[in-house]
């Protein structure tokens, strides 16, 4: 199990456009239409399966919200920051 990161480690390691909300890191991606967002969410799902680290994904009409946390550790770990970067790479 990965170790929880300190507040400073989270702040310094958080990729651009991601924010911390309590024990999660969150980003909202914007799209031109619904199906483009659905396709992106599917790609995030495939990545999550490959990395075995699964986010909460909320699909809206023109945006997709992605949230990462390490439930087994009880908060934010290096795994979450890594997944945020990999998710950004999908765009």
SSE layout and pairings?
Elements: H1 7-13, E1 19-21, E2 24-30, H2 34-51, E3 56-59, E4 63-68, H3 78-89
Antiparallel strand pairs: 1-2, 2-4, 3-4
Catalytic activity: (4aS,6R)-4a-hydroxy-L-erythro-5,6,7,8-tetrahydrobiopterin = (6R)-L-erythro-6,7-dihydrobiopterin + H2O
Pfam families: Pterin_4a (PF01329)
GO molecular function: 4-alpha-hydroxytetrahydrobiopterin dehydratase activity
Mind explaining what this structure looks like?
- The protein has helices spanning 7-13, 34-51, 78-89, and strands spanning 19-21, 24-30, 56-59, 63-68.
- The longest helix has 18 residues, at 34-51.
- 41% of the residues lie in helices and 22% in strands.
- A four-stranded antiparallel beta sheet has the order 1-2-4-3, with helices on one face.
- Keywords: Lyase.
- Belongs to the pterin-4-alpha-carbinolamine dehydratase family.
- This is Putative pterin-4-alpha-carbinolamine dehydratase.
- It catalyses: (4aS,6R)-4a-hydroxy-L-erythro-5,6,7,8-tetrahydrobiopterin = (6R)-L-erythro-6,7-dihydrobiopterin + H2O.
Largest sheet: 4 strands, antiparallel
Q: How many runs of DSSP E, i.e. beta strands?
A: 4
Query: How far is it from the N-terminal to the C-terminal residue, by CA?
Result: 29 Å
Helical stretch tally: 3
Shape: globular
Low-confidence stretches: none
Q: Specify the CATH homologous superfamily.
A: Transcriptional coactivator/pterin dehydratase
Strand order of the largest sheet: 1-2-4-3
Instruction: Evaluate the radius of gyration.
Output: 13 Å
CATH architecture: 2-Layer Sandwich
Secondary-structure-derived class: alpha+beta
Mean pLDDT: 97
Proportion of residues in β-strands? 15-25%
CATH class: Alpha Beta
Helical percentage: 40-55%
SSE run: HEEHEEH
């Amino acid at each position: 199990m990965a170790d929880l990161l300190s507040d400073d480690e989270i702040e310094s390691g958080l990729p651009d456009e991601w924010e911390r909300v309590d024990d999660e890191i969150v980003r909202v991606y914007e799209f031109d239409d619904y199906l483009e967002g659905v396709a992106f969410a599917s790609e995030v799902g495939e990545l999550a399966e490959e990395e075995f680290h699964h986010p909460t994904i909320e699909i809206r009409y023109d945006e997709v919200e992605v949230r990462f946390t390490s439930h087994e550790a009880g908060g934010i770990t290096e795994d979450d920051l890594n997944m945020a970067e990999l998710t950004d790479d999908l765009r």
